[in-house]
Amino acid sequence: MTSVIFLGTPKFGAVVLQGLIDQGYKIEAVVTQPDKKFGRKQELHQSEVKKVALANNLKIYQPLHLSKSEEMNELLSIRPDFIVTAAYGQFLPTKFLQTAKIKAINVHGSLLPKYRGGAPIQYSLINGDKQTGVTIIEMVKKMDAGEMYGSRAIDISDDDTSGSLFEKLSIIGRDLLLEVIPKIIANQIVPTCQDEDKVVFSPNISKDQEQIKTSMTATQAHNLVRALNPQPGAYILMHNKRYKIWQSEVSAEKCSLESGYLVSKNKEFAISFSNGTILKILNIQPTGKKPIAIKDFINGQGNQFKVGEKIVED
After folding, report:
1. Where along the chain do its domains lie?
2. Does this model's pTM top 0.85?
3. At a CB cut-off of 8 Å and minimum separation 6, what does 287 contact?
4. 112 among the known binding-site residues?
5. Where is the Formyl transferase N-terminal domain (predicted)?
6. Which residue positions in the chain have pLDDT lower than 70?
């Protein structure tokens, strides 16, 4: 039976892990990020990968920093056939990768060499790409730079968010991985090198990038909303108060107002952006409150904003 150490954290990784379990691979250990506190009540939440591991009675490791952890020595001693990662969120020591008897491979959520790094799905939306996909690569010391064992592309629909793309790509990644592993074992697949001239990086989203700014066009603002839904959420500053925007729509109309003005709040909350473009806010979340449909916001807090007034600050 082919043995695997699996490393992953969010649902993307959980889907891949469950696929390996269902196909009969021997999961020697599961490594995932430590439980984290969320919300005002600071309740402790387990990662989606941990939930799958617990449901299948698998050995779980949750070091804060894998390379400096006590767990590292135990993991080094396992020496599995494969080390498989899928959205784990930490760099892996070379000495650990070298313990794989066959290969250490990663399920990466982009069409490499485009979008190496920790936020490939988000950047595909931010940049308005028409396609994204999954690539299976060998893990090497350099980030996401290993040889490729296969890739699969899908179209990005107009209503996709990072959440919906994560779900789609997790299934594609699972299926592609389960096709690739037997071929690697049987020496039936020849990996290809990435074209270094086409490398694009996708570093983790910074706090500053979460803000919708008046320098953006409506399309750029809309793409940011999609990219940061469901986590961490894009926000806009209106009258110096922060509001998260969970759903939006680019208007087909244009206006002569400068960026940041309220264009309309008659059954819609429309704001002007760069180049005369207009963004309709469809779902909004005031700080400390739950997300609400824009019609409910207009009927409540909307009376503090006046049409023709500059309401957005950077």
Report:
1. 3-201, 209-313
2. yes
3. 241, 242, 243
4. yes
5. 4-181
6. 39-40
Place of tokens 């399920």: 107
Q: Is 169 annotated as a binding residue?
A: no
How high is the pLDDT of residue 44? 86
Contact 66, 72 (CB under 8 A): yes
Tens digits of per-residue pLDDT, 55-88? Answer: 999 999 999 999 889 999 999 999 999 999 999 9
The two tokens of residue 49 are 């990968």
| pLDDT tens-digit map of 83-94 | 999 999 899 999
Estimate to the nearest angstrom the gap between the alpha carbon of 185 and the chain centroid. 30
Is 113 one of the annotated binding-site residues? yes
Instruction: Please name the CATH architecture into which domain 209-313 falls.
Output: Roll (3.10)
111 labelled binding-site residue: yes
d(CA 26, CA 81): 10
CATH class of segment(s) 3-201: alpha beta
Residue 45 φ/ψ, nearest 5 degrees: -120, 140
